[in-house]
UniProtKB/TrEMBL annotation:
It comes from Saccharopolyspora elongata. This is Glycerophosphodiester phosphodiesterase. It holds the Pfam family GDPD. One of its GO terms (molecular function) is phosphoric diester hydrolase activity. Residues 1-28 form the signal peptide.
Length: 329
């Protein structure tokens, strides 16, 4: 009569079988091997509309980027209504813009915390009225040759729009609003302004920025997609823990996910199933070039070749007019 196997050995075999089955399930549930590639193309997020570009090499938080622009190939300036319209006309699916609260409680559409770099004025945006900001020349400080010439000086007076003007100019187009401060009160004020919009308009607006103001927006307008470093980290850490099952954590619902290119391959079911899962939870996936530092974008034909097959989310670009014709629609 054959000798019975020890009980501990049976348990080991059972445990091994369970591990193999789970691994097989995780692989089958997340692999892209059997995913259909083709059809829908990536969509384009135009950073600050059509704008002057610059090298991000050596850029720090306090770098005046207007003083280091590339030789201009067009006449548009960032965060202007004409630049945003040019972006949509070029093929942008979504336009990003920056906002700051003003001393009279409005929201100015402008990138920098202070106006000294780009304009002929001085001071902090939140200490200046909207009317005073509109009187500034926002093209004053741009130079591509170290200050020998200033090609936009005198051409930017009155071009700094208010958020109200942008919302009026683009009543239906998708907008991504960047709150540049860390002030919860500013987020609450933005939420109050956005609450005046109807549900259809809010469905095409998202807000991202610092944890405190974004939390204030989300608390007051939970139907609006939002994103901050904290919310994205919470979503992705939870997803890494359970995403192999196909489950999307609640922390990932109705949010904006800006995924650095270098991190994306580590996500379960990247790219097509990941995007599909997030969209089913009401969220939007934006792929950012490189490590995601200082607004790195997919700005050349060579960089577009790095977008993985099957990715149907949004790609971040600083050169939408040049990049849009290269995307197969």
């Amino acid at each position: 009569m054959p000798e019975a196997r020890p009980r501990w050995r049976k348990k080991r075999y059972i445990l091994g079988a369970v591990v193999v089955l789970l691994a097989a399930f995780a692989f089958a549930n997340n692999t892209q091997l059997f995913a259909e590639v083709g059809g829908e193309s990536p969509k384009l997020l135009a950073h600050r509309g059509v704008a002057q570009t610059f090298s991000t090499a050596g850029v720090e938080n306090d770098t005046c980027t207007a003083e280091r622009i590339d030789p201009p190939v067009h006449g548009f300036l960032e965060n202007t209504i004409v630049g945003m319209r040019a972006a949509f006309d070029s093929g942008a699916d979504l336009v990003e813009l920056d906002v700051h609260i003003t001393s009279d409680g409005q929201f100015a559409v402008f990138h920098d915390w202070e106006v000294d770099c780009r304009t002929d004025g001085s001071g902090t945006t939140r200490d200046i009225t909207m009317a005073e900001l509109k009187a500034l020349d926002i093209g004053y400080g741009y130079t591509a040759d170290g200050g020998r010439t200033f090609p936009f000086r005198g051409r930017g007076v009155g071009l700094m729009p208010s958020l109200d003007e942008v919302l009026s100019a683009f009543p239906h187009e998708p907008l991504l609003i960047h709150v540049k401060s860390e002030d919860a009160a500013e987020g609450a004020a933005l939420a109050q302004r956005l609450s005046e919009l109807d549900a259809a308009r809010l469905a095409n607006i998202a807000v991202y920025g610092g944890d405190a103001p974004v939390r204030a927006v989300r608390d007051r307008l939970p139907q609006v997609r939002t994103a901050s470093k904290g919310s994205m980290a919470d979503c992705l850490l939870r997803y890494e823990a359970i995403g192999w099952t196909g489950i999307v954590p609640d922390a990932c619902a109705n949010t904006e996910l800006h995924i650095p290119e270098s991190y994306a391959p580590w996500l379960w079911a990247w790219p097509s199933k990941f995007v599909s899962r997030m969209e089913s939870a009401g969220s939007r996936v934006v792929l950012v070039a490189g490590s995601g530092g200082f607004s790195e974008g997919f700005d050349t034909q060579e960089s577009l070749a790095r977008i993985p097959d099957g990715f149907t989310g949004y790609v971040w670009t600083n050169r939408v007019a040049e990049v849009a014709p290269l995307i197969d629609r």
